[in-house]
Design a protein that fits this description.
Blueprint lengths: L5 H41 L29 E2 L5 E2 L15 E2 L5 E6 L6 E7 L3 E6 L12 H22 L10 E6 L5 E7 L4 H22 L1
Antiparallel strand pairs: 1-2, 3-4, 4-5, 5-6, 6-8, 7-8
Helix pairs in contact: 2-3
């Protein structure tokens, strides 16, 4: 049996840390779904239903996290007569903690460090692409691990390999293959990462979670 190098062991430890975080996030999401299901079951058992038209303009806001670019967005009538997309017009919450719908048909999602919610980058989500731009003051070099070894080679190239298999099986067209590019300056610092043809919301979530984790690790390694 071949011996593993220190670098292999270190990367394995990093991946394990990411997997543990993924499992924790998924477990929390499952618990929230179960709680919501119990609430809906309780309401259904009461047997008291009203048509949506009977509720007037008092409509529950829809989170922009669930908005898929390119789909028709449902505008909501606020109490003061303004139109909002899942965010109250007088909201005082920081834009760094929520996904914001811009007027130019893109969604901006902040990517934060898990432990303290420090803003690392902003993701501009378009109907067929996403662009990740580190914020000012966040220095990320393309050669700092685990950017290439994990984010590019394992996550994005892993998605691309699955797409290539789907093309071979005629499940998707070759033009729908996920593609990515990294723009860097003369010193190798990341200016933006563009990912085309993400296609699925699940992929976006994986890209966001892994990029936040990878950026955090890169900052720690670069001091």
């Amino acid at each position: 049996m071949d011996a593993y190098s220190d670098e292999d062991i270190r990367q394995a430890a990093e991946i394990r840390e990411w997997l543990v975080k993924q499992l924790a996030d998924k477990q929390e999401e499952i618990e929230k779904l179960r709680s919501t299901l119990l609430l809906i079951d309780s309401l259904l058992k009461q047997g008291s239903f009203k048509a949506a038209s009977n509720f007037g303009s008092s409509t529950l806001p829809i989170s922009t996290d669930d908005v898929v670019p390119g789909q028709k967005k449902t505008s909501l009538q606020s109490k003061d007569g303004g139109i909002t997309y899942g965010v109250k017009a007088n909201s005082t919450e920081s834009n760094e903690q929520k996904t914001v719908m811009n007027t130019d048909s893109k969604v901006i999602k902040p990517l934060i460090r898990f432990k303290d919610s420090m803003l690392l980058a902003n993701a501009e989500i378009y109907p067929d692409s996403v662009v990740i731009i580190p914020v000012k003051g966040i220095i990320l070099n393309v050669n700092t691990p685990p950017f290439k070894s994990f984010f590019l080679n394992r996550i994005l190239d892993g998605m691309k390999k699955k797409d290539e298999e789907a093309v071979n099986q005629s499940r998707i067209k070759e033009s729908d293959l996920i593609q990515y590019s990294v723009e860097e300056d003369n010193e190798g610092l990341i200016k933006r990462i563009k990912i085309n043809n993400y296609r699925e919301k699940e992929r976006l979530n994986e890209i966001f979670n892994t990029s936040s984790w990878v950026f955090t690790r890169m900052i720690e390694k670069s001091g």
